[in-house]
């Protein structure tokens, strides 16, 4: 049987942190062996809410490609490319905007919330680009006739809208696109080093590109059980940020770590040292791949050019079908 096809993308909006990796990218690396995957750095999507300042866009794109490749995405197994390098995304987005009712876009759960939220930060996103975000997302997915889309639970309403848009297209013209289903992968959730949600805005993140020394330094800063002042105090690992990381990076020994904490057989300093070394060991292959890529930046560009060439072939074939059923092929050479 042939493999299913996946499309997924990420906005190049800044540096990755470890929570981003465990929340999505780790699943991608697993999926590349089970599906035919198209992974896109969706730079046009980044403009829907950050169009005023694009000065760091190229740098962010390069860093995202580094993150993906160092995480283990294989450019031979996957089609890895930049969205704006495949112009068919824009053409299909335009055509979908002709048939999508305005009311469908205005009812997107996060639309008004984000306008208020970002508006309070001084951002004006009351634009067609932001309103039409779901159409561009739909174009991204169906351009490659993906049958599966990895999403978080909060993104399911957006995928359902994409399904409604493609159904409308198929009903008005002719069935061209399959309906993609959601893939809800298991994602590990990490707190920030201060115990809150890991976020660059809080300054509590662990960068995905952190060197072993930087990892150790960030682990030393982690908050622990606030009631445990001295090493002889009995600890509660369930309220400890360090233990939350142990459950992911030292899975085989977490029971022993928890027992030692509760019985005060290990101090917080030693517990952090143990975690740091486990993290360095777990991420060693990622660090090695990143070092190799950073030493050869032209290799990253070559991979993205290669990916765009492969993506364009599939996208061009799809758009030929779309133009044909919409009677837009007359006189084309």
Features:
2 domains; two-stranded parallel ribbon; 52% helix; three-stranded parallel sheet; 15 helices; Tyrosyl-Transfer RNA Synthetase; 333 residues; mainly alpha; protein biosynthesis; Rossmann fold
Give a brief rundown of this model.
This protein is mainly alpha-helical and 333 residues long.
How would you portray this structure in words?
The chain is mostly helical and about 325 residues long. It is built from 15 helices and 5 strands. It has a 3-stranded parallel beta sheet with strand order 1-2-3. Helix 1 links the parallel strand 1 (about 5-10) and strand 2. The longest helix has 29 residues, at about 295-325. The model has no long low-confidence stretch (mean pLDDT about 95). It is an enzyme of class 6 (ligase). It is found in: Mitochondrion.
Q: What spatial order of strands do you see in the largest sheet?
A: 1-2-3
Distance between the termini: 36 Å
- How many structural domains does the protein architecture include? 2
CATH 4th-level superfamily of the largest domain: HUPs
Radius of gyration, in angstroms, nearest whole number? 23 Å
The chain-level structural class is mainly alpha
| Fraction of helical residues | 40-55%
Weakly predicted, low-confidence segments: none
CATH fold assignment of the largest domain: Rossmann fold
Overall number of strands: 5
Percent of sequence in beta strands: 5-15%
Under CATH at level 1, the class of the largest domain stands as Alpha Beta
Counting DSSP H or I runs of 4 or more residues, the number of helices is: 15
